[in-house]
Write a structure and sequence with these properties.
By secondary structure, this protein is mainly α. Helices cover about 75% and strands about 0% of the residues. Helix 3 packs antiparallel against helix 4 and helix 6 runs parallel beside helix 8 (about 255-275). The protein starts with 17 loop residues before the first helix and ends in a 5-residue tail after the last helix.
């Protein structure tokens, strides 16, 4: 008797209704997600290989839009580089430009990868598994949308920086607003710490709600430290620039930052006092990792990098 090798080839879904295709593919997967994915390669409720071309064309338009937005951001950065060359020789300015350049390189690399992903789909369209093709189209479309949004947000940052470079009043105004925002953050932290009127459920067990609030406040306290350092560096740069150009230097900001620092230091002590010992033990490794990563970030701070560090090391609460 001859053994028959199992057929591991993908199921040919061409001609299946969406309901039939979902039942074949889904198994234990999320039916709604499978249906949404298969709909990418369906026409009139039927999965069709002939629908791949239109799906790829739609994805390609999204990719093209993303690539165009990245090019516009690159053009804006070119303009800013020229403007920055006429600014005083301040490390704060040159470092911000270098940070922008590094971020653009990263966004550009992501955009470059989109075209390759489209080509991979085209190589599969004749004989490839339709569900996998749909998955790839969905992934590249989502990735292109994310690249577009990132490039748009990046260009807004560049616009703000260009205004900062060219208008001394704008520099003072932005610095003042940022310091006020920092003061509000510290006030909010203070309000959060004051809510700790009990750290257990009355039976000696840690209550997850104050645990969550303490952890969030502790992480926020670390980030506020970096915000304070960043604004101190910006204040020094704005003052130096004002002195060079003979314009009004910002006043009152240094004393405000000093007061914020005193309040921030007091909050660190309060957060330590209200914490149960098991909280500190439980989250010590992750909080130390956040501290170590943030200590490597020097002004001018790249805030998307800070958000990524916090997201990477933020402990899970069960």
């Amino acid at each position: 008797m001859t053994d028959v090798e199992p057929d591991d080839s993908p199921t040919e879904l061409d001609g299946f209704s969406l309901d039939q295709a979902v039942s074949v593919v889904a198994d234990t997967a999320d039916n709604d997600d499978v249906r949404e994915t298969l709909a990418i390669v369906a026409q009139d409720g039927v999965v069709r290989r002939g629908a791949v071309d239109d799906a790829v064309a739609n994805a390609s338009m999204v990719v093209t839009t993303a690539e165009t937005r990245v090019e516009l951001a690159a053009d804006k950065l070119d303009t800013i580089q020229v403007t920055a060359d006429s600014a005083p020789d301040l490390a704060f300015v040159s470092d911000r430009v270098h940070n922008f350049e590094a971020r653009l390189d990263h966004i550009d690399s992501r955009a470059d990868a989109l075209g390759g992903a489209i080509q991979d789909v085209l190589a599969m369209k004749e004989t490839g598994d339709l569900y996998e093709i749909a998955q790839r189209i969905k992934r590249v479309t989502n990735a292109a949308t994310d690249v577009q949004q990132t490039a748009d947000d990046f260009q807004l940052e560049l616009d703000a920086f260009e205004a900062w470079l060219t208008d001394p009043d704008r520099r003072v105004e932005q610095l003042t607003n940022d310091v006020d925002a920092l003061a509000n953050s510290v006030t909010e932290l203070d309000d959060a710490v004051e809510t700790f009127d009990g750290n257990d459920d009355g039976n000696g067990n840690s209550d997850p709600e104050p645990t969550n609030r303490w952890l969030a406040a502790t992480i926020r306290h670390r980030v506020v430290s970096l915000m304070h350092a960043d604004l101190q560096a910006e204040l020094a740069a704005v003052r130096s620039w004002a002195e060079r150009d003979g314009v009004t230097s910002p006043s009152g900001i240094k004393s405000q930052l000093d007061e914020i620092q005193r309040d921030h230091t007091a909050l660190e002590e309060q957060l330590s006092v209200v914490a149960l010992p098991e909280w500190k033990t439980r989250f010590d490794e992750q909080l130390t990792a956040i501290d170590d990563a943030l200590e490597e970030m020097e002004p001018p701070v790249v805030w998307p990098d800070v958000e990524a560090v916090v997201a990477e090391h933020r402990p899970d609460i069960e």
